[in-house]
Write a structure and sequence with these properties.
The complex is a heterodimer of chains A (344) and B (384). Chain A has 15 helices and 2 strands. With 344 residues, chain A is mainly α. Chain A folds into 2 domains: 281 residues, ABC transporter involved in vitamin B12 uptake, BtuC, CATH 1.10.3470; 54 residues. In chain A, strands 1-2 form a two-stranded antiparallel ribbon. The longest helix of chain A has 32 residues. Chain B has 12 helices and 15 strands. In chain B, strands 2-3-1-4-5-6 form a 6-stranded mixed β-sheet, sandwiched between helices. The longest helix of chain B is centred in the last third of the chain and has 23 residues. Classes of the chains: A mainly alpha (344), B alpha/beta (384). The interface between A and B is medium-sized, with 35 and 33 residues.
């Protein structure tokens, strides 16, 4: 291995690591606020990438139907609850948000031909289609059991993951898609060619991380989320709704997932079930951060990316083995270092 | 217990009815991988089953289709269900080699013939008392690997690198290909693995580039096989590229795009049916299948995988009249007669080749079952 190969592998590792880092942050966020281990995080990556690919191919992405179906389900649940409470004035708003908005989106997609839109609009449309699935999932699957144990929530996550993978196969088919590169620019630094796409991924990831930092440090909602993460009961006593915190964290997780999907889709072929493995690698990063520390989780995820790149050079057949074995010493070290607190 | 007695009584009654001369229907059980990792192969097979003839030799044929989700345990469970509950006369499936291998014991125990749609030669080789019940329609890997090695020799390739799936498909191809290539004095300078779900193969590709091979063979199936090729092109590889017949569907062309121009692969003749010379007997059968499939699913949707199911049905249609002379469908005698008739298949033209079976060879393909294909302008082109 000479320096050039080492640099190329490093570039590859950091690019993938940046995406794993985003997912690791989302996993830590969701776990801290709602105690949910969000296995379907990866599905948002796949849905984001495949929705963008469908739009570019001029097809109506299947996520539209998912959005409509989930919106209708929520409207039914919320609507019947409002009827029972005799608060009829809330009905129009419930219908407007859960059915009206997805319908409007579907209608506008049918009206224009999405393949001819500029790339930026396509990306925005993708985000509008995929991100709402996050809070909708929370409302349908997690909110009714929000007070359950971590294990029960994990089981719900597995169920949601399996369902979404099946739905993905139905919507997008068994074959994968790859979107054209956002940019063909490349720079030569010494012997090494830096792809514009790579730089874009890294810069976008860093910007998103900075934005998340500002959100948590400077805004009221961000502070509310942090308060909930620290002490759920205390936060509720201070007037922070647990449901709102859950919805908000799932919206962020959905946004991070869909955005990662958009970033990764020009680099590699994405399949309906690719998300799981990508999410799992983000999870390894999140575990390194103990599902609590954002900077350590991000750093761990970049480490996973680098380890993956170099092990694919030295021992390609054992790449996944090496990456996932990393979790064992980390868990050992963590369990020796921290005192285990039994959950109530 | 009572239900068992009742159903036993019912079956006895049905048996009596059959014996009295009312002809039973032929039941064909199909288990295939319409979901899971092998879905891109299983879906066209499932679509093809819907096109299969519903009467054979004047006898009504029922198809019971089950999905095994590319999972070995489910394939075995499906097979048991088909045998015990549906009392099928023939099992078609499954899509993948591991599934088909696991099903052998079940069909042998149930004394029911099975036609596999998976590639590996191990499904029917070495022939033993269990595999006596097992037949297959896809070409053996070895046959395809020989075609690639021959093409490499013709194009003066001296060094070659291999990159394949880190699973049974990639290993199987590596074993066949490395054996044949070494025997024919082609030097293998690289052997790498990647996963179907990998997002990057930069490491493997850099290692291959460092070895400077004249040609690279990618041992993958479906669109994931495009990733190493795209990475090689991106990093400036100029040598010959080979793929396996596992990539022969339109989605591969779509995903790989212009990076796959000039790639060679061996494939069943059905892939380039329209370009076959008119004298080729396979052309007519293959074109008939393509026309039927595309009429249902749209132009350009046909893939070689569905044609394996089509060929399985042709084997049945050819063997069933012989078996019907000896016994009634639904009986062990019929299944035995069907097995014997399948084994005697001679000169039967399918969409993938000409079947000439024997007790030792339950596939029976010759050189006509494969052609070399080149990707030109985003389409499959029959290579000279």
């Amino acid at each position: 291995m000479d320096l050039q190969i080492a640099l190329l592998l490093g570039q590859d590792g950091v690019t993938n690591g940046a995406i794993y880092a985003l997912l690791a942050l989302a996993l830590v966020l969701v776990f801290a606020v709602t105690r949910v281990i969000f296995i379907p995080q990866g599905e948002f990556v796949a849905f984001g990438a495949l929705t963008l690919a469908s739009l570019q191919a001029g097809r109506l992405p299947g996520t539209v139907w998912l959005l409509l179906a989930m919106g209708t389900a929520i409207a039914l649940i919320e609507g019947s609850a409002a009827m029972r409470a005799r608060r009829f004035r809330r009905l129009p708003l419930i219908l407007l948000i859960n059915c009206g908005a997805p319908l409007l989106l579907a209608a506008s997609l049918l009206a224009v031909s999405p393949a001819e839109l500029p790339l930026l609009v396509q990306v925005l449309l993708t985000l509008m289609l995929v991100v709402p699935l996050g809070p909708m999932l929370y409302r349908l699957a997690y909110q009714p059991v929000a007070e359950a144990s971590v294990l029960a929530l994990l089981i719900v996550s597995v169920a949601v993951h399996v369902t979404l993978t099946g739905v993905g196969l139905l919507f997008f088919g068994a074959e994968g898609s790859r979107t054209p590169a956002f940019t063909d620019v490349s720079f030569e630094v010494g012997d090494v060619v830096l792809q514009g796409q790579t730089i874009l991924v890294i810069v976008a990831s860093i910007l998103l991380i900075v934005a998340l930092y500002l959100f948590f440090e400077r805004t009221l909602y961000g502070k509310a989320l942090r308060a909930t993460a620290m002490n759920r009961t205390g936060a509720r006593l201070m007037g922070i709704s647990g449901n709102l915190a859950g919805l908000l964290s799932f919206t962020l997780a959905g946004a991070i997932g869909a955005f990662s999907g958009v970033l990764i889709s020009p680099i590699t072929t994405i399949y309906y079930d690719s998300g799981f493995l990508i999410g799992l690698k983000g999870f390894v990063g999140a575990i390194i951060g103990g599902l609590a520390s954002y900077p350590v989780a991000a750093g761990g995820a970049v480490l996973v990316g680098l380890l993956e790149a170099y092990s694919s050079f030295w021992a390609s057949a054992f790449k996944e083995v090496i990456v996932f074995t990393l979790i064992i010493p980390v868990l050992l070290w963590r369990s020796l270092k921290t005192r285990h607190v039994e959950e109530a | 217990m009572r239900i068992k007695l009742l159903s036993a009584g019912l079956l006895a009654f049905l048996g009596a009815v059959v014996a009295a001369g009312v002809r039973a229907e032929i039941n064909v059980g199909v288990t295939l991988s319409a979901t899971g990792p092998a879905a891109s192969l299983g879906i066209p097979e499932k679509n093809t089953v819907a096109l299969l003839p519903t009467t054979i030799a004047g006898q009504k044929v029922n198809y019971i289709v089950l999905d095994d989700a590319s999972d070995t345990t489910t394939a075995v469970k499906n097979t048991r269900k088909l045998l015990a509950e549906n009392r099928v006369d023939l099992v078609i499936g499954s899509t993948t080699t591991p599934n088909s291998l696991a099903m052998i014991d079940v069909v042998a125990e149930g004394e029911t013939p099975m036609i596999s749609m998976a590639a590996s030669a191990r499904i029917i080789d070495p022939m033993d008392s269990k595999r006596a019940w097992v037949f297959k329609t896809p070409q053996n890997d070895a046959q395809m690997a020989t075609a690639i090695v021959q093409h490499m020799l013709d194009n003066k390739v001296r060094t070659v690198a291999y990159i394949g799936f880190a699973d049974a498909y990639g290993e199987g191809w590596w074993n066949e290909f490395s054996k044949i290539a070494e025997a024919r004095k082609i030097q293998i300078v690289g052997n790498e693995r990647f996963n179907r779900a990998d997002t990057s193969v930069t490491g493997q590709v850099l290692k291959i580039l460092a070895a400077k091979p004249d040609a690279v063979l990618v041992g993958g199936a479906g669109t994931p096989a495009a990733l190493p090729q795209k990475s090689l092109k991106e990093k400036g590889y100029k040598g010959l590229m080979y793929q396996t017949h596992g990539v022969a569907n339109a989605d591969f062309l779509r995903v790989c795009g212009k990076d796959c121009e000039g790639t060679f692969l061996p494939a069943g003749p059905v892939l380039v049916a329209a370009q076959l010379p008119d004298g080729n007997p396979i052309k007519k059968v293959a074109l008939e299948y393509v026309a039927k499939y595309e009429a249902m699913h749209g132009k350009g949707t046909v893939s070689t995988f569905g044609a394996h199911a089509w060929d399985a049905s042709r084997l049945l249609a050819n063997a069933a009249p012989e078996a019907l002379k000896k016994a009634q469908p639904g009986t062990p005698e019929f299944r035995k007669a069907l097995r014997d008739a399948l084994e005697k298949t001679t000169n039967l033209t399918g969409a993938h080749g000409v079947f000439n079976m024997s007790p030792q060879d339950h596939l029976g393909f010759d050189q006509r079952a494969r052609v070399m294909v080149r990707i030109e302008n985003g389409a499959w082109k029959l290579a000279e």
